[in-house]
Amino acid sequence: MFTKAEIFKVDSALGLIFGYAIICKQDGKPYVDRQNDHIPEATMMEAALEFAKSDRQARSMHDTDDGQILFLLPMTTELAKALDITVKKTGLIVAMKPDNPETLAKAARGELTGFSIGGVALDMHEEEM
Question: Which of 38, 75, 78, 89 is the most buried (most CB within 10 A)?
Fold first, then answer.
Protein backbone atom coordinates (compact mmCIF):
# COMPACT_ATOMS: atom_id res chain seq x y z
CA MET A 1 0.00 0.00 0.00
CA PHE A 2 1.35 3.41 -0.91
CA THR A 3 0.09 6.44 0.94
CA LYS A 4 -0.99 9.48 -1.04
CA ALA A 5 -0.68 12.73 0.89
CA GLU A 6 -3.72 15.00 0.79
CA ILE A 7 -2.41 18.54 0.15
CA PHE A 8 -3.84 21.34 2.27
CA LYS A 9 -1.26 24.18 1.94
CA VAL A 10 1.51 25.30 -0.40
CA ASP A 11 4.21 27.73 0.76
CA SER A 12 5.84 28.90 -2.47
CA ALA A 13 8.30 31.17 -0.65
CA LEU A 14 9.79 28.23 1.27
CA GLY A 15 9.12 25.72 -1.52
CA LEU A 16 7.06 23.42 0.72
CA ILE A 17 3.89 21.42 0.16
CA PHE A 18 1.96 20.50 3.32
CA GLY A 19 -0.43 17.57 3.53
CA TYR A 20 -1.76 14.61 5.43
CA ALA A 21 0.35 11.57 4.50
CA ILE A 22 -1.95 9.37 6.58
CA ILE A 23 -5.44 10.09 7.86
CA CYS A 24 -6.46 7.95 10.84
CA LYS A 25 -9.69 9.55 11.98
CA GLN A 26 -12.03 12.12 10.51
CA ASP A 27 -14.61 13.80 12.74
CA GLY A 28 -13.69 11.34 15.50
CA LYS A 29 -14.46 8.24 13.42
CA PRO A 30 -12.00 5.78 11.84
CA TYR A 31 -11.10 6.98 8.33
CA VAL A 32 -11.32 4.38 5.55
CA ASP A 33 -9.65 5.23 2.24
CA ARG A 34 -10.60 4.30 -1.33
CA GLN A 35 -8.80 0.95 -1.01
CA ASN A 36 -10.91 0.22 2.09
CA ASP A 37 -7.83 0.57 4.34
CA HIS A 38 -7.87 2.08 7.80
CA ILE A 39 -4.64 2.99 9.60
CA PRO A 40 -5.07 3.24 13.39
CA GLU A 41 -3.23 5.99 15.24
CA ALA A 42 -0.83 3.52 16.95
CA THR A 43 0.16 2.04 13.59
CA MET A 44 0.62 5.54 12.13
CA MET A 45 2.92 6.49 15.02
CA GLU A 46 5.11 3.43 14.46
CA ALA A 47 5.20 4.05 10.70
CA ALA A 48 6.04 7.74 11.22
CA LEU A 49 8.93 6.81 13.50
CA GLU A 50 10.38 4.34 10.98
CA PHE A 51 9.87 6.78 8.09
CA ALA A 52 11.59 9.60 10.03
CA LYS A 53 14.61 7.33 10.55
CA SER A 54 14.75 6.48 6.82
CA ASP A 55 15.60 8.53 3.73
CA ARG A 56 12.26 10.48 3.92
CA GLN A 57 11.81 10.43 0.13
CA ALA A 58 8.72 11.93 -1.45
CA ARG A 59 7.55 10.36 -4.67
CA SER A 60 5.55 11.25 -7.75
CA MET A 61 3.40 8.51 -9.22
CA HIS A 62 4.47 6.26 -6.29
CA ASP A 63 7.87 5.32 -7.71
CA THR A 64 9.76 8.40 -8.96
CA ASP A 65 11.66 10.26 -6.24
CA ASP A 66 10.66 13.92 -6.31
CA GLY A 67 12.00 15.49 -3.12
CA GLN A 68 12.13 14.93 0.59
CA ILE A 69 9.76 15.04 3.51
CA LEU A 70 11.35 17.63 5.79
CA PHE A 71 8.72 17.92 8.52
CA LEU A 72 6.57 15.23 10.15
CA LEU A 73 3.89 15.86 12.77
CA PRO A 74 1.95 12.86 14.02
CA MET A 75 -1.39 14.21 15.22
CA THR A 76 -3.28 11.75 17.40
CA THR A 77 -6.40 12.22 19.49
CA GLU A 78 -4.20 12.07 22.59
CA LEU A 79 -1.69 14.66 21.30
CA ALA A 80 -4.45 17.05 20.24
CA LYS A 81 -5.96 16.77 23.72
CA ALA A 82 -2.55 17.36 25.35
CA LEU A 83 -2.10 20.48 23.18
CA ASP A 84 -5.64 21.60 24.06
CA ILE A 85 -6.62 21.85 20.40
CA THR A 86 -9.51 20.46 18.42
CA VAL A 87 -8.80 18.77 15.09
CA LYS A 88 -11.20 17.31 12.54
CA LYS A 89 -8.56 14.85 11.31
CA THR A 90 -5.87 12.84 13.03
CA GLY A 91 -2.95 11.31 11.20
CA LEU A 92 0.49 12.15 9.91
CA ILE A 93 1.00 15.73 8.74
CA VAL A 94 4.05 16.25 6.53
CA ALA A 95 5.83 18.96 4.58
CA MET A 96 7.45 17.98 1.28
CA LYS A 97 10.15 19.96 -0.51
CA PRO A 98 10.03 18.86 -4.15
CA ASP A 99 13.20 18.63 -6.23
CA ASN A 100 11.31 19.64 -9.36
CA PRO A 101 10.08 23.28 -9.38
CA GLU A 102 7.18 22.24 -11.63
CA THR A 103 5.84 19.97 -8.86
CA LEU A 104 5.62 22.98 -6.53
CA ALA A 105 4.03 25.09 -9.29
CA LYS A 106 1.42 22.39 -10.01
CA ALA A 107 0.57 22.18 -6.30
CA ALA A 108 0.26 25.98 -6.08
CA ARG A 109 -2.08 25.99 -9.09
CA GLY A 110 -4.20 23.21 -7.56
CA GLU A 111 -3.28 20.75 -10.32
CA LEU A 112 -1.43 18.44 -7.93
CA THR A 113 -3.78 17.22 -5.23
CA GLY A 114 -1.49 14.69 -3.57
CA PHE A 115 1.93 13.07 -3.49
CA SER A 116 3.26 9.80 -2.18
CA ILE A 117 5.61 9.16 0.70
CA GLY A 118 5.51 5.46 -0.12
CA GLY A 119 5.07 2.85 2.52
CA VAL A 120 3.83 -0.62 3.27
CA ALA A 121 1.43 -1.49 6.05
CA LEU A 122 2.62 -4.75 7.57
CA ASP A 123 0.73 -4.88 10.85
CA MET A 124 -2.55 -3.31 11.85
CA HIS A 125 -3.26 -2.64 15.53
CA GLU A 126 -6.70 -2.60 17.11
CA GLU A 127 -8.06 0.94 17.03
CA GLU A 128 -8.25 2.45 20.48
CA MET A 129 -11.47 4.37 20.83
Answer: 75
